[in-house]
Specification:
This protein has 478 residues and is an alpha/beta fold. Helices cover 59% and strands 8% of the residues. The chain has 25 helices and eight strands. The strands form two sheets. It has a five-stranded parallel sheet with strand order 2-3-4-1-5, sandwiched between helices. A three-stranded antiparallel sheet has the order 6-8-7. Strand 7 and strand 8 form a beta hairpin. Helix 14 crosses helix 17 and helix 20 packs parallel to helix 23. The N terminus is likely disordered.
């Protein structure tokens, strides 16, 4: 696939969590619910539960149990750009299905002939070509669907894909919350928080066999009542039981209301972070600012060549860290990362946070990850670097109809800063062309003036040409 057609993809994008019987509780009861639904003819499965309830592990175990070929697609904020989603999902399917191609879709993406408004058309082309190439059975998992909230065109693409779903395809959605409009009128099997919650027997197996923490029936009942079978809460309490007397833990539980997701931040901090050495604690807070954690980058940020061993220890201890299949990249469980980022905002200085993001930007840029570098430079408030990069790649993003990607970068930058940098003003003006023409013209003129002051002939030519086009096509004042 041509490099201009397929954006550089993160290591996590198509990576599914491996099933490790030594670290993961077998979810045979819930896997059985999915199997029976499939036997009844269901093709679409919606697994909706709170963070840390085992959605991803359940889907991985189901795929391992059924041994059906599959593709795993990790959704993220970048998928708010429908054109990115079209091309990235196509790359995912080509990677998973030998010989699969969607020639017309690929050609249109390569030539920049598909825009965000073509979501349904793109889905229909993809579904048509999938129907010709699928094996007898094939599963497609969309992990973290909730990250597409507020992305109606990307959701429209997925909705159209479901409406044209080929006979052999099974589609799994993993999400923290529901999307009623997406599943309305479709034959969908829904599993919810209650379905995934651990029973008393499963809690006993989790502690006695996997965590190797002896658990009395009384303590098991108390844990069940206080967590409602929430898996992450149970693992957190397991960390307490490792260190403290069961009687003391029981007294703490007796005085505690239910441990739910909204109280997780306090428990992560008190029961995990506060026991770590200060240097490791600070390193974890910095690493939480990353979307994924390549070992080479982690070593730079933590200033510690042993950071890989430390992260591997956290993996082995079930402390919400995962090593990807490539063996060189770690990720944090989403809830753990969210909590750490919240704490990073409180415990790290602004200079530390910005320096970490700047390191990440420079590393990704050196690795060819221009779009990741743009996001990290913007987060680091290094607008000079954002401008330099946009001068190189911004026009290509526009030509490929990657407006949402550009918007995601520029929305991080205050308006007064955009006014100071002509390339930022130029691309802001280009994005405003269809939705707010008067503002677009204003930005284009600010860009032109800035380009003249900086003797940037390319920028001056582009901004002037766009103003001419504006007057010709929009207000007729030419």
């Amino acid at each position: 696939m041509n490099s201009l057609f397929a954006p550089r993809l993160s290591a996590i994008k198509f990576s599914h969590p491996p099933v490790d019987p030594e670290r993961h509780l077998p979810r045979n009861r819930v896997v059985g619910l999915l199997q029976r639904a499939e036997e009844r003819g269901r093709q679409v499965f919606f697994i909706q539960a709170q963070a840390g309830q085992g959605k991803t592990t359940l889907a991985s175990q189901y795929l391992a149990k059924t041994a059906v070929p599959f593709a795993w697609y990790q959704l993220g904020p970048e998928d708010h750009d429908p054109v990115f989603l079209f091309s990235s999902l196509l790359a995912c399917l080509r990677n998973a299905i030998e010989g699969f191609q969607s020639p017309l879709l690929e050609q249109m993406l390569e030539k920049g002939e598909l825009s965000a408004s073509d979501a349904r058309r793109a889905a229909e082309m993809l579904a048509t070509d999938l129907a010709k190439a699928l094996p007898l059975k094939f599963s497609l998992v969309f992990d973290d669907l909730h990250l597409l909230e507020g992305a109606p065109l990307s959701l429209a693409f997925i909705d159209a894909l479901l409406l044209a779903i080929p006979a052999g395809l099974r589609v799994f959605f993993l999400s923290r919350w529901s999307f009623p409009d997406l599943i309305a009128g479709k034959s969908v099997e829904v599993l919810n928080n209650d379905d995934l919650a651990l029973t008393r027997a499963e809690i006993a197996e989790l502690y006695n066999r996997l965590l190797q923490i002896p658990l009395s029936s009384e303590m098991g009942d108390l844990l069940y009542r206080r967590t409602d079978g929430w898996i992450m809460g149970l693992v957190l309490f397991g960390q307490i039981l490792v260190r403290e007397d069961a009687g003391e833990v029981g007294r703490r539980l007796d005085g505690l209301g239910r441990l739910q997701q909204d109280r997780a931040a306090d428990y992560f901090k008190e029961e995990i972070l506060d026991d770590l050495p200060p240097d490791l604690k600070k390193a974890l807070l910095k690493l939480s600012l990353l979307e994924e954690i390549p070992v080479a980058l982690a070593e730079q940020i933590a200033s510690d060549s042993n950071v890989r061993q430390i992260l591997e220890q956290l993996v082995q201890q079930n402390l919400f860290v995962r090593l990807l299949d490539n063996g060189t990249t770690f990720t944090l469980h989403h809830l753990f990362r969210e909590v750490l980022r919240l704490l990073a905002g409180q415990l790290l200085t602004e200079a530390d946070r910005e320096a970490t993001l700047a390191q990440a930007a420079a590393w990704h840029l050196a690795e060819g990850g221009t779009e990741e570098a743009l996001r990290y430079f913007a987060g680091a408030r290094d607008y000079v670097s954002v401008q330099q990069l946009l001068r190189q790649v911004g026009v290509t993003l526009l030509a490929k109809h990657r407006m949402v990607t550009l918007q995601a970068v520029l929305v991080q930058i205050p308006a007064e800063e955009i006014d100071r940098y002509p390339w930022l003003a130029f691309f802001r003006g280009m994005l405003e062309m269809e939705t707010a023409p008067p503002q677009a013209l204003d930005y284009l003129e600010k860009a032109r003036v800035g380009f003249v002051a900086e003797a940037d002939r390319l920028g001056e030519l582009l901004s002037t040409a766009q103003q001419v086009l504006f007057h010709l096509m929009i207000d007729g004042r030419f």
